[in-house]
Specification:
Number of strands: 11
Strand order of the largest sheet: 3-2-1-4-5
Structural class: alpha/beta
Oligomer: single chain
Length: 627
Amino acid sequence: MLELAGIIILGILAQWVAWKFKIPAILPLILIGLSVGPIATLFTENGNKLIEPIWNGESGLFPGESLFYFVSLAIGVILFEGGLTLKKGEILNVGFVIVKLITIAVIVTFIGAGIAAHYIFDLSWQISFLFASLIIVTGPTVITPILRNIPLKKDVSIILKWEGILIDPIGALVAVLVFEFISAGKGKEYTSTVLLEFGKIVLFGFTFGFTFAHALAYSIKKNIIPHYLLNVLTLAAVLGVFVLSDQFAHESGLLAVVVMGMVMGNIDLPNLKELLYFKESLSVLLISILFILLAANINMDDLYLIFTSKAIWLFAVIVFVVRPLGVFISSINSSLKFNEKLFISWVGPRGIVAAGIASLFGIELQRQGVEGAEYITPLVFMIVLGTVLLNATTARLFAQLVGVFLKNSEGILIIGASSFSRIIGKYMEDNGRHVVLVDNNGMNIRKAKSMGLDAIEENVYSEDLINNIELNDIGYLMAMTSNSEINKNAINKFRKHFGENGSFRVVSPEEMSDPENNPKEGLFSQTDDYVKLTNLARKYSQIHEITLNSKEHYEGLIEISKTDPDIIPLFVKNVEGNLSIIPSNSKEVEIEEDFKLVYLGKQMEVEEDSNTGDAEDTRTKTEEGEN
C-alpha cells in the first residue's frame, strides 16, 4: 500500500514541478522512476528497489503480466483523450505537410533508425526495426510544454501539435506489425502473416472505433445516459472498445480508441467539454503513474547495456540526421520556409506511447527468448529522455537562432464572439492580423468560423487557453463580452500571457456615465459600451476608413464620434497598413499624415475646399441602402 500511495504522490508532485518550471512532466517522472527503481538498488541495504512494479516472489505491485495489461489500458485512455482534441478543420492550411510527416517521415525514420541501430549496436534486423518503430512517435504530452512559451508562427505550432497527436497510433501500429513479424518467425508464410495481421488491425480498429463513437454520441445526444454517469460511462465504453477490438485483432485496441476519439471530437456533442476535462484529469493521473512504474521496472543491467559511446552515436544519428531528413523530404513543395523546416527538424521529443509500448514488447520478447530484446526498453528510454532534455533546454534558443521566434507577437485574442466582435475580427484578419475569438456560446463560434475566423469554444475561466500552443503569437487582448466582470477578469487573468503589447476591454455602463472614470485599458471610446457597439453593428455592419492629414484632423473626427451615436472609432492604420487599437483615452494615439481612421458606423463624407482641394470639413451621411 505504501508503494502504491508513494507512486501517486510522487507522480502528482512531479506534475506540479513540471508546471512550476514549465518543463515536460515526462522528465521528472522518468527521473523519479529511475531513482526509486534501478538506481535505488545501488544504495539500499538489500539491493532491492524502493518500488518494485512486478511481483518477484517477495515484493511487487503487479503479479505476472498484470502491469502490462494496466499499461495497455492506460495508454488506450490517453490516446482516446488525444483523439478527442483532433479537429479536422484545423489542418486545412497545413494538412499537406502533416500527412507527409505521418507517412513519408515515418518511413524515413523507420528505415534510418533501423539501419543505425543495426550497425551501431550490432542488433538483429528484427530488433533494430522494432526499436525504429517505437521511436517514430513524438507525442502531445511532451510537445505542448516545450512549445507553450515559444511564440511561433501558427502554422509551425499546428504542424508540431498534429504530428505529435496523429503519429501516436501510427507508430503504435508500425510497432505492432514489426512485433507480429518477430513473433511469427521466419518462413514462407511471413509476408502473408504480416499482411493478414495488418488488415485485421485496420479493419477491426476502424470498425469498432467508428461504430461505437457514433453509438455513444447518439446516446449522449438523446439523453439516454444520465448526466452524472456521462464521464464514467464514457470511460467504461473506451475500455470496452479497446478490449473488444483487441479480442478480434491483437493490438487493434489502440487504433480503435484513437478513431473513436477522433470521430467523437468532430461530432457536435453538447457535453464534449466535460468529457475533455474528465479525460484530461484522468490522463494526467495515468501518465504520472505509468512513467514512474515503467522507469522503475528497468534494471541496472539494462542501463549498463547503453552506458557506451554507441548510445551517443545512435542518439546523434536519430536526432541530427534521421529526423531532419524526414522533415525536409516531407515538406518539399510546401509553404514552409527553410528556417521553419530546421526548427521542426530540431523539435522531436518522444513520449509516453514510445516508452509504454517499448516496455510491453521488450519484456514479452525477452520471455520468448528473442536475442537482443533486452536492448529495446533501455534504448527507447534513452531516446525519450535525451530528446526531451535536448528540446526542453534548447528549443527557445534554437527558435531565436534560426529566426522562427516571433519578436513581435501581433496576434489578437478577442474574448467574446458577438456580432460586432466578428465584424471587427474579420476586418483585422483581412488586414493581415492573426485573430482568434473565444466564446462559450457555440452558435457565436460557428458563425465566426463560417466567416473564416479562428474561433475557440471555451470558458474564459478555464486554464486551457493558457496552455494552447496555437496562441503563442498572440500579443493583444480585447475583452468584449456583455459582462463587465468577465471582461475585467479576462484582462487580469490573461494580460501576462496574451496582452504583452496591449490589453483592452469595452467600458462598463457605470464607466461610460462617469467622465472622470476612464479606465486605462478602456477600448475604443468611453462613450460606447457593449450595448452601443451591438446596436450599431446591427444598424451598420460595415467598417470604413478615412484618410487623416494631421493630428488635429484626427482629434476633430474623434469629437464628432463622441456626439454622433452612429460612429465608433476602432483603429488607426498607418501607411504600411499596420493597425493600432484606439483606447478609450483616444488622444494618446500617434498620428501622422496619410494615416487612416478606421471606424464602425455610417460613412463620413469629406468636403474639400474648391480652391485648394484640402479637406476642410468632415461630415457624416448614411449610405444608401444601409439599415
